[in-house]
Design goal:
Layout: E1 2-6, H1 17-29, E2 32-38, H2 51-62, E3 76-81, H3 90-112, E4 124-128, H4 133-141, E5 147-151, H5 161-177, E6 180-183, H6 186-192, E7 199-201, H7 210-213, H8 217-221, E8 233-238, H9 247-259, E9 265-270, E10 285-288, H10 296-300, E11 305-308, H11 322-329, E12 334-336, E13 351-353, H12 354-358, H13 364-369, H14 376-382, H15 384-388
Parallel strand pairs: 1-2, 1-4, 2-3, 4-5, 5-6, 6-7, 8-9, 8-11, 9-10, 11-12, 12-13
Length: 395
């Protein structure tokens, strides 16, 4: 099987759902993958020229050091469709498509090389993980390819104005042409299943590594046995520190720790920073850069509580955060805001809410006492390969 995958993220970046999906397709169906990265799908903004934005672009270039080891293997090839950042306009799309003409023959050659007649796994697919004109152009060039729509977020919610309207228009066109779709959260399932009968709910999952096996489970099991408020306490977050990150919750958590009498604690935030940091961060809030996927278990082993302090808005309504599964696999109690699929969870899932803390109904000490026991069945059920196994439309 061959797959042209129009991805929302670069191949050589920290592994997210698209990378795990491509790897699963290769493992399960021996798929060869053409990973297509596209030009910007929104209009440029003045903020793109700010110093903070330039730093973020420099960080993205450095993410290659954190990519999966398989990204340079021969079964996967990356292709960059460069273009002007004016896709929401008809003229911008015309100019970009003119520039892409030379790529059509390259894609066609890739599709047909090493194609074995009569091979049952030789069927090719166009997988769209980003609603954009490049996906529509590829569908026009290769109308014989069935489309699988990989909907990992409410993509239009990331944009405003004409850019948002264009992404919504693309979303409708791709959904109309697709044979099947996959969504990552219950909110997205409610939104799409009425419009596409073959719509699979595939929640996010876990990427395991040998370092997970090196966890000192004896220490983890004793986390809540005794609580010493004068001993170091670490409350941690791993993930993007982006506009949906709610800094006010971090400040309130810090005050709660002080009010409960904790003398020595750190709030550790690990991940890429997409936006400006508050200028009033206290010294016990520590920000660290992103790390390779296989190293997160080392960081999680140092946490006492896992944090997901997200804003509650249109964007986060469609989110099932990967970090929930990572925190649970590390047997951590989780303090989260009540957004997206997190709102469907409770203390039976090891989840507690900032809203309860703000209402005076929850203390940090209470969460620390609820030490979880590592559950092998949770890991088995929620590994990426188990998640994707529910899709039955391939090859």
């Amino acid at each position: 099987m061959k797959v042209i995958y129009v991805s929302p993220v670069p191949l050589h970046s920290v592994a997210q759902r698209p990378q795990h999906f491509a790897y699963w397709l290769h493992q399960r169906f021996h798929a060869r993958v053409l990973w297509v990265e596209t030009s910007p799908i929104r209009y440029p903004r003045w903020s793109d020229l700010s110093p903070a934005s330039l730093v973020r672009h420099a960080f993205k270039r450095s993410e290659a050091n954190q990519a999966q080891s398989w990204v340079d293997e021969p079964w996967i090839t990356s292709l960059r469709l460069a273009g002007l950042p004016f896709e929401p306009s008809r003229l911008g799309r015309m100019i970009n498509r003119t520039a892409w003409r030379s790529f059509e023959s390259k894609v066609r050659y890739w599709l047909h090389q090493d194609h074995a007649e009569g091979d049952e796994t030789s069927k090719s697919w166009l997988v769209v993980g980003r609603p954009c004109d490049a996906a529509l152009w590829l569908h026009q060039c290769f109308p014989e390819l069935p489309i699988f729509y990989d909907i990992m977020d409410d993509m239009a919610a990331f944009y405003e104005g004409a850019s948002r309207r264009w992404v919504s228009e693309c979303d409708e066109a791709i959904l109309e042409a697709a044979q099947a779709a996959m969504v990552s959260s219950h909110h997205l399932l409610e939104r799409y299943r009425e419009r596409k009968s073959a719509c699979f709910l595939v929640p996010n999952g876990l990427a395991m590594s040998p370092r997970y096996e090196a966890f000192n489970w004896g220490v983890l099991r004793s986390r809540g046995a005794t609580i010493n408020k004068s001993k170091d306490l670490v409350l941690g977050y791993i993930g993007a520190i982006a506009p949906w990150f709610d800094w006010s919750l971090v400040h309130r958590l810090r005050q709660q720790l002080v009010d409960e009498g904790f003398k020595r604690f750190k709030i550790v935030l690990i991940g890429p920073v997409h936006g400006d940091l508050p200028g009033d961060l206290p010294l016990d809030v520590e920000i660290k850069p992103a790390m390779p996927q296989e190293l997160i278990w080392d960081a999680l082993a140092t946490f006492d509580i896992g944090l997901i302090p997200f804003k509650i808005n249109e964007l986060t309504a469609s989110v099932d955060p990967v970090k929930y599964y990572e925190y649970r696999a590390a047997a951590l109690p989780i303090l989260s805001s009540r957004f997206g699929d997190m709102a469907l969870r409770n203390s039976d899932d090891g989840v507690y809410f900032f809203e309860s803390m703000q209402a005076g109904q929850l203390m940090v000490e209470t969460m620390l006492k609820q030490a979880l026991i590592p559950d092998p069945s949770f890991i088995r059920i929620n590994r990426w390969e188990s998640r994707f196994a529910s899709i039955d439309c391939f090859p």
